[in-house]
Amino acid sequence: MRNFSDSHEWLSINTATLRRQEGREVPLLDILDQCAKQGVRAISPWRDQVAAAGLAATSRAVRSHGMALSGYCRGGMFTYTDAPGHLAARSDNRRAVDEAAELNAACLVLVVGGLPGALAGKAAYTDITRARAQVEEGIAELLEYAKGAHMPVAIEPLHPMYAADRACVNTMEQALDICDRLDPGKTGALGVAVDVYHVWWDPKLREQIARAGKSRLLAFHVCDWMTPTTDLLNDRGMPGDGVIDIPLIRGWVEAQGFAGYSEVEIFSQDNWWKRPGAETLATCIERHRSAV
Amino acid sequence: MRNFSDSHEWLSINTATLRRQEGREVPLLDILDQCAKQGVRAISPWRDQVAAAGLAATSRAVRSHGMALSGYCRGGMFTYTDAPGHLAARSDNRRAVDEAAELNAACLVLVVGGLPGALAGKAAYTDITRARAQVEEGIAELLEYAKGAHMPVAIEPLHPMYAADRACVNTMEQALDICDRLDPGKTGALGVAVDVYHVWWDPKLREQIARAGKSRLLAFHVCDWMTPTTDLLNDRGMPGDGVIDIPLIRGWVEAQGFAGYSEVEIFSQDNWWKRPGAETLATCIERHRSAV
């Protein structure tokens, strides 16, 4: 297991972590400048932030800072109720691949979608098996396109509390079953993003990380589970402040040969998003060394 | 699958559902009277409610109403940090068995506990594997005692969002693995409580219900998953108001031979607990017929 205690060369900042600073939305290019200033070598930006900054401008900024992208957030949301919805999801995901390629991302991360409409408050149907079938079909289609762009695709199993509205792929085992069916040769074109927040509770986590192996471990995300957790989405903790044994899980992932970035992704409405960005970033660096 | 549409003879009311009415705490014996008045044949009371009403008085009331207990809520909370904590958990669980027996409950439901201290805000340790070992040891000990009292014990896998603070048994598969180890003969002394709220998202739910079989399906609980869910604990929905396909899951359970009560258990700080009890109860009955 790599020693992170004296350097943050393997730290990546998911830009959602710094999206809000002192309660205000901060433009992506400013976030990149902040990261560069503190010696961060990698980021993982969100599509809406890139769209606001402009893809070309983002690409130039990334290159001029000499930064890597540990991933691109995010493709997915494959579920639909009608043919136009199906087509829209398909084209949107292809654009996400193109953007990820332009930014030279290590992978496109997929949040696969839940019951269509649920995120807006009203599910159009409640058959989660149907949603899962649509997701697998969507990934299969996208995979062909992504292979053409040489862009690896990482399924991110989301915590089961997001099954209804954000992602109906909820365990590593389920994600890897999909990988086995769609990429039986383990080519590296399809894999998983392991986010400790989503999977730490899983009694089968260790065995499923081993099952994934190096070729399917495409990304590693960290934050912490707070007790109490006051919000289902935006109360994620800084590594070390909650109950997840992050070094244990990182050890399992690295034992498989994973040698990429450890990406800090924190949504924190009432804590970190209210603080100055420099403080949040300095804390990410410190905790990367001491708690990851 | 039984037809519930024209009767509520197989409805049980978990008394937490009526614990608060119009924002006020209501005594257990009043709740029993309300249930009896609307023809409810079974309940599942909580220990704190029974303690407040008195065990003997509760027992008399249950008998005089001719009511069954679909279960008794709850034993568990097996995790500990020191020997006194270990002993306290053991004696408390034995008392829970005695109370369940006095009330002639169908089973004692176990919420097994999470990381010790986490429910109060600060986990004493973060090794969930250790917590799981303590839980299994606790169940093993309790099982011997419960057998002596002829009281079946039902492990309730809780939603993974409760893994830190309430229960580190989070899937049917995990609960049934414990059952296999502690009661390989499937004697009926140990099984599971299937609460759709906790397990609806699980891609392996159908196969694990089949694996459980009749001898291990000891209780069936219903409520609904709302979108959005605004609170991790107390925003559970009335059957039919959320996204869970309850009849589908009941069909799977009954296909194994389960023929017990369907127990409505709703914690709802901002909705049902604010309404008059008669309205909540009438809605439970109506939804038992139309949405369960």
From TrEMBL, chains A, B:
Domain Xylose isomerase-like TIM barrel, chain residue ranges per copy: 33-274
Lineage: Bacteria, Pseudomonadati, Pseudomonadota, Betaproteobacteria, Burkholderiales
Protein name as annotated: Sugar phosphate isomerase/epimerase
Record keywords, A-Z: Isomerase
GO MF terms held by the record: isomerase activity
Organism: Pigmentiphaga litoralis
One Pfam family hit: AP_endonuc_2
Xref: Gene3D superfamilies: Divalent-metal-dependent TIM barrel enzymes (3.20.20.150)
Signal sequence, renumbered to the chain: none
